[in-house]
Amino acid sequence: MSISTPFWRVSKKIKEITNKIRDNMKKTVVFSLILFLCYSLSYAADDMSEYFSNNKHNGRYWNSISLSEKSTYISGMSQAITLCIETVSRFPNFSKEADKNTIDLVYKALDFYLPQNITVGASVEYIDRFYSDPLNLDIPVNDAYACMILEGQGLLPGEKKEETISNLRGTFKK
């Protein structure tokens, strides 16, 4: 283009160049966003896997949440157990079709996990102490909770407790 080129041609050429740059920028931005999202999703998936053992929250997860989240977690477990007890008792067809021994076993198991003498705060403190040992971090929270209940009922004395925890470590070791 020379100085004698009409203004409209120069303007048209500038517009073409600007559009090409804009199109390239859009492609670059979209491509960058796609890469960023893929990276973020894969990072999040990798990052979260350490918080689970056999699809259950473990000690790493427990240690990563706040005190109020821990209290909510324990309260949620208690509510779920209560709901199970109420569900079993409200469905008379279940009682008629199932063996009486099976129903009694279900009630005993659910009642076992819903102790009346252990507060949410005491549960959180116990599980915090349980996971203060780094060897226990792969053990799921519900198993740590079960250890607390067994110990609280005198069913897990010293040597038996160590054996149980050792077995859990072996089962859930990553």
Question: Summed up, what is this model?
Answer:
This protein is 75% helix and 2% strand.
Task: Note poorly predicted spans.
Answer: none
Bin the helical content.
over 70%
H/E topology pattern: HEEHHHHHHH
Question: What percent of residues are in strands?
Answer: under 5%
Question: Sheet bearing the most strands, described?
Answer: 2 strands, antiparallel
- Average per-residue pLDDT, rounded, comes to 79
How large is the count of helical segments?
A: 8
Overall structural class, as computed from helix and strand content, comes to mainly alpha
Number of domains: 2
How are strands sequenced across the largest beta sheet?
Answer: 1-2
From the alpha-carbon coordinates, what is the Rg to the nearest angstrom? Answer: 30 Å
The dominant shape is elongated
Distance between the termini: 69 Å
Let me know the number of strands: 2
